[in-house]
Amino acid sequence: MIPSKVVEKVFICRDIAHIYLKLLKPMVKPLPGQFVMVWVPDYEEIPMSVSGFSEDVLRITVKCRGPTTNYLVRELPVGSYLGVRGPYGRGVTEDLISGVGLFIVGGIGIAPILYLVNYYRDLVRGSKLLAGFVSREESRVTEELVNYLDVDVVSEDVDGVTVIDLLKNYLLSINNYDYYLVSGPKAVLDQVVNLIPSSFRGYVLTESLMKCGLGFCGSCALKDFLVCRDGTLVDAGRYRWLIS
């Protein structure tokens, strides 16, 4: 367990915040798509995607979803201490994202994409981002990407549509892209891999309930696939089989 100190919180909106953790012991630099287990004293240990990393500062992007995340976003004071384990899982390597990409994101699934774009900024520059959020306020989290990606964002409260509706407008031009990568809630992942032709190269950043982060407890199993150990990154073809 790596002790860390909360050195900054930046609010995107009432329910989403970037939390910056100064690591008090060295940690291996994560690959985009990898995650860490964050121990919150008096609450629990939860998996969090890495949304940024620089030297000894780790960034996580948290949305209120339950008691622990509510505490992190709304109550955790700067100067508090948290524990961090990781990084864990299979991340996105450079060879997988050659060419022009189509990134498809639902909600807080944007977190690993923030890190990926910063990590591979020259490689992904000019790629397309389709992102959907519940509210227009939440969509502000994409603002740091506009200098690198062609960003198309919708929100349910203003546009009345989801990222799946947005994606349908791009299906006829899917061959303008070399690959796709989808991140977000399971419902979004499932719909995307079933909408895009199976012959098209794609990757999924899977989401599941994770407890140990090491592949021991089995809480994140999809058939023979353990999200924490074998993911979170998985080829779209295999993911399609896992949910069949």
Task: Describe this entry's structure for a reader.
- With 244 residues, the protein is an alpha/beta fold.
- It folds into 2 domains: 2-88, Translation factors (Elongation Factor Tu (Ef-tu), domain 3, Beta Barrel), CATH 2.40.30.10; 94-242, 3-Layer(aba) Sandwich (Rossmann fold).
- The chain is 20% helix and 34% strand.
- Strands 1-2-5-4-3-6 form a 6-stranded antiparallel beta barrel. The protein has a 6-stranded mixed sheet with strand order 9-8-7-10-11-14, sandwiched between helices.
- β12 and β13 (225-226) form a beta hairpin.
- The chain starts with a strand and ends with a helix.
- The relative contact order is 0.15.
- The mean pLDDT is 91.
Q: How is the secondary structure organized here?
A:
Elements: E1 2-13, E2 16-23, E3 35-39, E4 45-54, E5 57-63, H1 67-74, E6 81-88, E7 101-106, H2 110-119, H3 121-124, E8 128-133, E9 150-155, H4 163-168, E10 179-183, H5 186-195, E11 202-205, E12 221-222, E13 225-226, H6 227-230, E14 233-235, H7 236-242
Number of strands: 14
- pLDDT below 50 for ≥5 consecutive residues: which ranges? none
Q: Strand pairing plus helix content: what structural class?
A: alpha/beta
Helix content: 10-25%
User: CATH topology of the largest domain, anyone?
Assistant: Rossmann fold
Radius of gyration: 17 Å
- Calculate the terminal CA-CA distance, rounded to whole Å: 37 Å
Strand content: 25-35%
Q: What is the CATH architecture assignment of the largest domain? A: 3-Layer(aba) Sandwich
Sequence of secondary-structure elements: EEEEEHEEHHEEHEHEEEHEH
User: What is the chains' assembly state?
Assistant: single chain
Query: What characteristic shape results from the CA principal axes?
Result: globular
- Average pLDDT, all residues: 91
Number of domains: 2
